[in-house]
Amino acid sequence: MGHVFYSTSETPESDIGNTPAQGFDAAVEFGERDLDLVNALQISPRAPWSLIGASLGIDATTAARRWQHLTDAGLAWTTAYAPEFATVGYVRLRCRPDTVAEVSARSSTYGCVFAVDRTSGRYDLQLSVAAESPAALDDFRVRWLAEHPGIEEARLAVAVHQYSDGSHWRPRALDPTQEALLTEGDERAPGAPRRRRGDRELVLALGADARRSAVELAADTGLSDATVRRRISEMSRSGRLIFRCDFAQQAAGWRVNTNLRARIPATDLDALGAALPEWPEIRLCVVTADDDSNVLLIAWLRTPQEPIALESRLLHHFPTLRITERSYTLSALKRMGRLLDPRSGIAVGHIPLDVWS
């Protein structure tokens, strides 16, 4: 089980996913400039404030101060993860009605469970799990899921190939000129996966805050400042280290999450995977090993009517696609290690994303 870090001093573990964040004003919303700032940090999460500010037409101090306000309020945060270390599985759980809250809370405390959603439909919960290996993923299923008496059914789909995830998604708040300023000189470089001493510690340290300084990271990992800078550069440029900037989606206007499972012929998968990351609604497009589906899609939408239009577009553009299951996320309790207030979506705590837990 991971260590829990709360943004308030009196948020009990037993209340994860059940109690609104203290002092939260349900009417709070992102301003347009807040989304601009988030978008800039999504593009270049560790850029100096001088560059972030220049892209937004503000000075570095103002940019840093606005970001501090968003993070203090739990409205936005940065994180990092290393996909090469993980085998990802999506677990759907059907629970006894009187145990849904308990299973939700307990699931949220595990470091290997990076997302927890309470959903509509046949299943009460969807867990996103990152384990060190397929055997470790199976161990999680057998060791924890099987022992909880409130779980009546557990269904595991293993991620086989990912076309896009939340690290690729953008609110599209910036214009091309602003984006170009943030991506100048940002080139991917090939790099063979090579696990070294300190990599795990570095990934865990960045998971709490992707903008931590090299000095802070060096103190946590036992590596030198220069080694930290070099490894971050090498791992991020080769795609071995992924940064992302997330935010409270409800406060920013994306109030509907829809989860679609579908089947499409293997010969059409790459066409689907090439197209959907460009659709503004799609947050996740992943090929899965499941029973009656081979694709999982997660979309962020603004109104309850939009999922119908999204399905229509999908079927129009991909005639061989068949949707086998659909559900709404009723409450998001955890995302990439951040514990979320289910009503507001703001971050109220953090459990390090640890595939080794």
UniProtKB/TrEMBL annotation:
Signal peptide: none annotated. PROSITE patterns: HTH_ASNC_1. Residues 91-159 form the Transcription regulator AsnC/Lrp ligand binding domain. SUPFAM superfamilies: Dimeric alpha+beta barrel, Winged helix' DNA-binding domain. SMART domains: HTH_ASNC (SM00344). Residues 199-235 form the HTH asnC-type domain. Keywords: DNA-binding, Transcription, Transcription regulation. One of its GO terms (molecular function) is sequence-specific DNA binding. GO terms for cellular component: cytosol. One of its GO terms (biological process) is response to amino acid. The keyword DNA-binding applies. InterPro entries: AsnC-type_HTH_dom, Dimeric_a/b-barrel, Tscrpt_reg_AsnC-like, Tscrpt_reg_AsnC/Lrp_C, Tscrpt_reg_HTH_AsnC-type_CS, WH-like_DNA-bd_sf, WH_DNA-bd_sf. This is AsnC family.
